[in-house]
Design goal:
Structural class of chain B: mainly alpha
Number of strands of chain B: 2
Helix content of chain B: over 70%
Radius of gyration of chain A: 19 Å
Order of helices and strands of chain B: HHEEHHHHHHHHHH
Number of helices of chain A: 15
Helix content of chain A: over 70%
Structural class of chain A: mainly alpha
Strand content of chain B: under 5%
Number of domains of chain A: 1
Strand order of the largest sheet of chain B: 1-2
Number of helices of chain B: 12
Oligomer: heterodimer
Number of domains of chain B: 1
Radius of gyration of chain B: 20 Å
Largest interface: A-B, 27 and 28 residues
């Protein structure tokens, strides 16, 4: 309980420190939105001209894109500091985390807030809402709850992958290029229906890199398209749960790898 | 004599940058491999969009895939770094040394960028088979298209360098560029036509993009390569590029002059 209140204090401190630079904060958020708009414009142009991608129409594609983007925003708002982790290790900043009475991973996450995450959150929410009437979803309180849980779960899936790969930095010091590339693959491949890929790749993007669980599976469930999937319905529907499970495994892996930490000296 | 001396300086600047790229060769290869990942995705997406039709709006699927493959490699290749360089040097005050050299600063920048590109070329060639495997490669549509592409590529390079330089020089006034640079990169990456060729854009968007210089960087050269030149003829497409190259030289001259006045006021 006390840990939670410390977590709250740390998180709000990092938010307040970002908001001190107001002009920068606003331009970062706008930059974040613009960044995602370019990706969406590609989907929009193709869907408008050709009518479909992988059998999905524009409203459905927009819905998928919005869900993925919101998940990414949640991931980025909570775990963006994974992208600074290598530097934290190399500069010896990690030593400080070890002597404080708080799990080091939480200290890492609350280290700084990347404000452009709000660009993703705003952009993603707008797309989901914009698509919500045109997309064939049977809206009910249950569906809305599932949507929210699924987007949180998607953020946790991305977090789990980054934390697992990041834990390798305890041994190899630098894994950022690898993780940036993986993040890029999530950002590119996660926005399209997984069914457009050939079989082996579809499988890899489900079980090797769990990109399909971020948005494609839950979106298929909500859009009543689960019949097209190559996995059973229960597995696709369990995406939010998959996020939580993968995340707790990732935290364990991280702890297990952290015994290999060798301080660079301070 | 002056030119000869300058030429020597430019050559040395370019040479040092080639060495820098060689030192970062793995980062450069990764940069191009990421382009290959994008190319593969675009290939799958456009294949799916074409569905059963082999041709849409007179554009066969195969040509479309060749366009995307070459266009995206080219767009990663023509991404000048001097914009960032200029900002760094202004903020750290090193710009004073750059300006006081006998060779003009803009020409140093062009030499820098030439070196960086030449240094990247071997890595690009290494990645080419991968990109061809994931996307689609084909020789130019005809020998005219090949020659036209070579010429167009050189002008595209010049325009990319000029644009990057203009963005960088704005830092003489603003000092902080990251937000602006990000917007420029994004709008630029779309308006070059690397992700969606101009012929598939909705009319209003296409008309807007045609008013910008960015289409000269990817769309015009690659459309010449595949034999469907922008503006209908290779010659007029090249002329349009030349027009922008010259206009941008003018803009740089004006911005540079004003930047120099400003630097003196600051006390250098």
């Amino acid at each position: 309980m006390q840990k939670l209140s410390v977590l709250g204090t740390l998180a709000s401190a990092s938010i307040r420190s970002e908001l001190q630079y107001r002009a920068n904060a606003v331009s970062s958020i706008i930059g974040g939105i613009l960044f995602q708009i370019t990706g969406f414009v590609v989907v929009w142009i193709i869907a408008a001209r050709f009518g479909q991608i992988g059998g999905w129409g524009l409203p459905e594609l927009t819905f998928l894109y919005g869900m993925r983007l919101t998940s990414h925003g949640i991931f980025y708002a909570c775990f963006s500091q994974m992208f600074e982790f290598d530097r934290v290790l190399i500069t010896g900043e990690f030593d400080r985390y070890l002597v404080r009475p708080m799990p080091p991973l939480i200290q890492l996450f609350t280290r700084k807030l990347r404000i452009n995450a709000f660009g993703d959150l705003i952009g993603g929410t707008v797309l989901v809402i914009a698509a919500s009437t045109a997309a064939p979803v049977d809206w009910s309180p249950l569906a809305v709850t599932y949507l929210i849980l699924a987007m949180i779960g998607g953020g946790l899936v991305e977090g789990a992958v980054q934390i697992t790969l990041g834990s390798l930095s305890f041994r190899f010091l630098q894994t950022l290029p690898l993780r940036s590339t993986v993040n890029e693959v999530f950002n590119l491949y996660g926005n399209y229906p997984n069914t457009i890929f050939p079989g082996a790749l579809r499988w890899s993007l489900t079980f090797l890199l769990p990109i399909a669980f971020v948005a494609f599976f839950p979106a298929s469930v909500l859009l009543n398209r689960a019949g097209e999937l190559s996995v059973p319905l229960w597995l696709a529907a369990a995406s939010p749960l998959v996020g939580m499970v993968l995340f707790s495994i990732a935290v364990r892996v991280w702890k297990w790898q952290s015994v290999h930490y060798q301080s660079s000296g301070n | 004599m002056n030119i000869a001396m300058h030429y020597g300086a430019w050559r040395e600047i370019a040479r040092s940058r080639i060495r820098v790229q060689y030192m970062y060769r793995f980062a450069v290869i990764l940069h191009f491999l990421l382009a290959a990942v994008t190319i593969y995705l675009l290939t799958v997406v456009w294949r799916s969009a074409y569905g059963d039709s082999t041709e849409v709006d007179g554009i066969p699927l195969k040509l479309m895939l060749v366009y995307l493959t070459i266009g995206n490699l080219q767009s990663k290749f023509l991404r000048p770094e001097i914009g960032y360089d200029i900002v760094d040097r202004i903020r750290q005050g090193q710009i004073g040394f750059d300006i006081s050299r006998p060779v003009s600063y803009p020409s140093q920048l062009v030499a820098t960028e030439a070196g960086l590109m030449l240094g990247m070329a071997p890595m690009l060639i290494l990645v080419l088979p991968v990109a061809g495997f994931l996307g689609e490669l084909a020789p130019p549509a005809s020998w005219e298209a090949g020659i036209g592409y070579a010429a167009s590529f050189l002008i595209a390079w010049l325009i990319a360098v000029e644009l990057s330089m203009i963005i960088g020089l704005v830092a003489f006034w603003t000092l902080e560029m990251t937000g602006f640079m990000m917007v420029y990169n994004l709008v630029g990456s779309f308006a070059t036509g690397a992700l969606v060729p101009l012929w598939f854009m909705p009319d209003l968007l296409r008309q807007f993009v045609q008013l910008l210089p960015f289409q000269s960087i990817v769309y015009i050269p690659v459309s010449i390569y595949i034999g469907i030149p922008a503006t209908g003829h290779i010659a007029t497409a090249l002329l349009l590029q030349c027009f922008w190259a010259v206009v941008l030289v003018g803009v740089i001259a004006i911005v540079w002059k004003r930047a120099m006045i400003r630097t003196v006021i600051q006390g250098g």
